[in-house]
Amino acid sequence: MSRIPVEAQARFWAKVDTTGGIFACWPWLGGRNAKGYGSFAIGGRHYMAHRIAMEIATGEPLPPDQIAMHTCDNPPCVNPAHLRPGTVAENQRDMAEKGRAPFRQHPELIRRGERHWFRLHPELAARGSRNGFAKLDEDAVREIRRRWSAGESRTDLAAAFGISPSNLWLVATGRRWKHVA
Length: 181
Ligand SMILES: [Zn+2]
Prior knowledge:
This protein has 9 helices and 4 strands; from the N terminus they run αββαββααααααα. By secondary structure, it is mostly helical. It has 2 domains: 6-133, no CATH class; 134-181. The strands form 2 sheets. It has a two-stranded antiparallel ribbon. Strand 1 and strand 2 form a beta hairpin. Mean pLDDT is 78; it is low at 99-110 and 114-133. Residues 25, 72, 74, 77, 79, 82 line the site of zinc ion.
């Protein structure tokens, strides 16, 4: 389970510009460090905003030896779809290779509006499904939003649809699956 309280998650997303839509970079509107990475405080401690974004999206903290890598090379971006876990060595290699091999999304995933790193990394997808990454479709998304508006609780709905509560909230509030009306 994520260590990030619901209150902090709401505070977090209030500082993110998601107006560009699901494919766009989501710039962090709060404080940034010298390198341009966002900074977010929980309980008086400061964390990298993009690392927190990934933890909220996956529902679990990154292992200490892992970093949240930007596939978009945009330090202030906190769109979880542009982040994937990696090691420092991997990140350096990735940065060195970027010029020759830019990050590409599978066209089918773009068509379906799914650009999440776990879909590009099957070995992590298996791990994800144990942590509540059930597959949603458009009907499920509409149903979630209908029941959310009717006042059903986040935890009940998350359990009913087999997704993590943080993911449920992103879907229910329209931050994820924006293209579904
Ligand atoms: Zn980005």
